[in-house]
Amino acid sequence: MEKYMCFIQPGNKLTLSVAVPLLHLLCLFAPFCFSWDALGIAFGLYILTGLGITVSYHRNLSHKSFKVPKWLEYFLAYWGVQALQALQREEQTNVADLENQAFYKFIQKTYIIHHIMLGAFLFSIGGFPYIVWCMGVRIVYLGHITFLVNSVCHMWGHQAWNTGDLSRNNWFVALLAFGEGWHNNHHAFEHSARHGLEWWQLDTSWCTIWTLQKLGLAKNVKLPSDAQKRKMTFRNIDNSKLSSDGFPQLPLK
Q: What does the alpha-carbon distance between residue 24 and residue 6 come to, in Å, rounded to a whole number?
């Protein structure tokens, strides 16, 4: 069962119902407010907040695929907050370990304020164009990329593992979503810190975790074992067609 950390209080739903359409409206001004510096800062924030979602929210907090020091956990989670992707879920709630921590309690109570503060800072250094590109375009683009994972990756792509569901590996979504597009891999090995299991499957979230591991900051990094890989292969695949690490050498259909 996945964890769902909800940072949005019920009273903030109205605020979000206004904020989300407003952010989409801001995107309409993008062609008229273009500047290379605004685009550059928006791209930098896209990387930070995107990894905040994939590395922190998803692989660290939800699946506990690895552990980092608390200061780094909070730093990564804070950038996930700035993606504005927290949702109210009816089925949540195996997150007592997070909800009992002062940091997450504080974020939950002051969620929208953090976005207002970032927006105010961006406006102070770059005016309206920075609001359009760094808040509007960046948040909307990242949100739709995230939604692609749970839509496109259940419709189009390749199934490498016998997961018994509709999950697919989609290289295009993986490229845009920091490696989350290797969705069939993830469904097969949900606690794996690495989603791009083949050498050619680009997974920038895993690259980040791997770097943290080499720096001694990420520990208890979980990866699928050979036994787990063999268990998840399609039963009609001959063992002679499997590489030594358990991956099929030929595409599976």
A: 23
Contact 97, 70 (CB under 8 A): no
CB distance 170 to 70 below 8 Å: no
Domain ranges of the chain: 15-147, 153-234
Using CA atoms, how far apart are residues 90 and 139, in angstroms rounded to an integer? 24
* Predicted local confidence at residue 90, as pLDDT: 46
Residue by residue, what is the 3-state secondary structure of the chain?
CCCCCCCCCHHHHHHHHHHHHHHHHHHCCHHHCCCHHHHHHHHHHHHHHHHHHHHHHHHHHHCCCCECCHHHHHHHHHHHHCCCCCCCCCCCCCCHHHHCCHHHHHHHHCHHHHHHHHHHHHHHHHHHHHHHHHHHHHHHHHHHHHHHHHHHHHCCCECCCCCCCCCCECHHHHHHCCCCCEHHHHHHCCCCCCCCCCCCCCCHHHHHHHHHHHCCCCECCCCCCHHHHHHHCCCCCCHHHECCCCCECCCCC
Contact 55, 210 (CB under 8 A): no
Average confidence (pLDDT) over 85-101: 64
In this prediction the pTM is 0.86
pLDDT for 22 = 92
Higher pLDDT, 228 or 240: 228
pLDDT digits (tens, 9 = 90+) for 115-167: 999 999 999 999 999 999 999 999 999 999 999 999 999 999 999 999 999 99
